[in-house]
Amino acid sequence: MYQKHPHTQYITFTFQYFINIILSQVISKLHGQQTQKVVCKWYASSHSGGDVPSFTDFFIKNLKPKNKAYRISEGRGGFCIVVHPTGSKSFLYRYKIHGRDAAIALGKYPTEVSLLEARQKYNRAYEAYKSGQDPKLSLSPPPPEGSTPETPLPAGVTIKELMELFITNWSEHNHSKRWSRANRLCLEKDLIPEWGEKKPSDLKPKDAYNLIDKVARRAPATARNLIKAAASMYDYAIRQEYVEFNPFVLKFSKHSPKIIPKSRERILDEDEIRFLWKAIDDGPGTSEVKRSIKLILITAQRPGEVAGMRFSEIDGNWWTIPPERIKTEKKVGLGHIPRPHMVYLTPLAKELIGEPGWAGDIVFPAIKGHNKRKGTKSAYKSIDSNALNKRISRKDEKGPKGKKTVVKEPYYGLSQWGPHDLRRTADTMMNSIGIDHRHVEMVLNHSLGKVEGIYNKYQYNDEKKAALLKWESKIKDLISNSHERLISI
């Protein structure tokens, strides 16, 4: 049976485009070059359906250069052409990997590749991407006949040994101690038992999917942490030329929706704040834990920053948090010199902090573990922010076995909340009482935009002081209605 040659399909579309180009040239004399842009968009969008390609040689040759380079997509799968100010044109394949934009240059047109050759390259890369492989590898030239394939992976190195190399040679030098330790624990718990004795190249994308899905069924948050740790380990392996592809950079959320984090929106209302202030005082727990929970609400700072407070960081009424303890300032590749954050301490905040005691410089020392013996100051350490979570979420009972009575319900009898929700509550309520939103952002030490963060060095100290004093006044109004007391130090 007779079938039309595929190239005959171009004739109809070329004719349509040719008519529109003539019309656009006439109209552009009156309205400038905007019409040609509209026609190009119309052509690309109206011919992207079915199996018929949008780009033709005639279409590409009629793309005119502008003051800046611009890109036109064919409308499917990231196949693009870029027109440079010099008039040169090049093909590009754009895609996303691990949530980030990536691109592969397919060649300059027509000196390096023809339209057909560019499309063939794109098809190979696109199919590799859809099958979970690295698109760049699909475009690598094949090895010469008779040559032995190069194996960059050192002989005998297992995934367990790769983990040790990653932790000791990279993570410990570029991550915080806590982050590096979390990487090790996460990998040792869920990756090493099943894959530790195998080679890194043996773990394929489908294996990574199955592993993450299994962990996500048990603990979605743990699965997210495993993705981060394993992806970072394989990135290290690629840089060291141990492997050629990272199986943990794909979109796991499509395969296992449970790992998608739920955004927290918990905000305590005025009645809950009033109730909690007394419930924390009357409930079980150490004075250090109780005071630090309240101080998060008063200062609106991160739980870890409050829990790790030092008296040496306080000068008068100002608390200076060093950059190595600030979440947004201790990242690798920050792009600027890490900056400290100054927090004004209101009278209520200073009363909660108290004076230096048996733990020396540590404001909120841990009582258990290393601090149980109070004779060695070098053994003292701050309470962990996880201790605050446990105190809030746990259920406490008192009395003999079989006759125990509940002295504290989980979350003090309220709907679920955590230490960070106190910070969100402070943010929301400070905005609600008329404090300028920008000044609230400065109090919370939220990151500025990239450009503003480089040029705007103003500290907003006067504005932060005024905001926190106004916020303290609001808190005092709430707790005074219930005749609340501060915890005695």
Could you explain how this protein is built, in words?
The chain is of the alpha+beta class. Helix content is 47%, strand content 9%. It has helices at residues 9-31, 34-46, 57-61, 115-130, 135-138, 159-174, 177-190, 192-195, 205-218, 220-239, 252-255, 270-282, 287-299, 303-307, 347-353, 385-393, 419-432, 437-444, 450-455, 461-480; strands spanning 70-73, 79-83, 89-97, 100-109, 314-315, 318-321, 341-344, 396-398, 405-408. The strands form three sheets. It has a four-stranded antiparallel sheet. The protein has a three-stranded antiparallel sheet with strand order 5-6-7. A two-stranded antiparallel sheet has the order 8-9. A hairpin with a 5-residue loop joins β2 (79-83) and β3 (89-97).
Quick summary:
With about 500 residues, the chain is α+β, with helices and mostly antiparallel strands. The chain contains 20 helices and 9 strands.
Strand order across the largest sheet: 1-2-3-4
> Number of helical runs?
20
Uncertain stretches of 5 or more adjacent residues:
1-13, 26-53, 147-153, 369-374, 483-489
The value of Rg in angstroms is: 31 Å
Tell me what portion of residues adopts beta-strand conformation: 5-15%
Global morphology:
globular
User: What does the main sheet amount to?
Assistant: 4 strands, antiparallel
Fraction of residues in helix:
40-55%
Run of helices and strands: HHHEEEEHHHHHHHHHHHEEEHHEEHHHH
In round numbers, the mean pLDDT is: 79
Q: Give the termini separation.
A: 94 Å
Quaternary organization: single chain
Total strands: 9
Structural class by sheet pairing and helices: alpha+beta
